[in-house]
Amino acid sequence: KMCCFYHFDKIRSLNPEAFVHKLKEDFPHLEKIVVGYDFAFGKAKAGNADHLNKLFDGEVCIIKEVCVEGIPVHSRTIKAYLKKGNIALANKLLGRAYVIEGEVIKGQGLGKKELVPTLNLSVDHYQLPLEGVYATRTKIGEKWLSSVSFLGHRVTTDSSFAVEVHVIDRDIGEVSGMVSFEFVAFIRENQKFDGLNTLKKQIEEDIARASELSSKRNSHYQQS
Hints:
The chain is α+β, with helices and mostly antiparallel strands. The protein has helices spanning 8-11, 16-26, 49-55, 75-83, 87-94, 110-114, 196-223, and strands at 32-36, 40-41, 47-48, 59-63, 67-68, 71-72, 99-105, 119-122, 132-140, 143-153, 161-167, 178-189.
């Protein structure tokens, strides 16, 4: 199977007719095109799904609108809810928990010494949710473990941006390479504390809350 794509800058000036002509030239054996009901193409989005159906002599399959609880399922809608920290609704529209992956990097060194041990991750190419603390599940080896995660600027310490994951009630030892974690629930927004002692107390509360949310989630799936 061949996977190809167009760079937007290369096709943005083409009108609908020219775009379909290019498709036919580049993919002479193209027989079927699948698009959403609100698909738009060509310069200034002049073409739509019905237009494509008239221009393309093969089969055009138009997917009808999909809604969850009256909310249209769109990537832009999901991104908007992620930016607001509304993980529950974003996950509902996705039909699964939102998962991101990052590479383990060296952190400040404060976690293990002064606060709680964390995996510090470098995350690229993902839509990150609202800055704050989340109940999460982290994949270590082949197991998904309950965890609490922070993403945002470390406003209490050095103000640098970080993605940190603490696995709850488990010594995971040294971890390297890529790590995946999924968002279960939003706990609180990012905030500044008076010092490390106050921050540590809040982190302990965050861990307890994340553990409670993870237990409810696991209980729900067992009953289902």
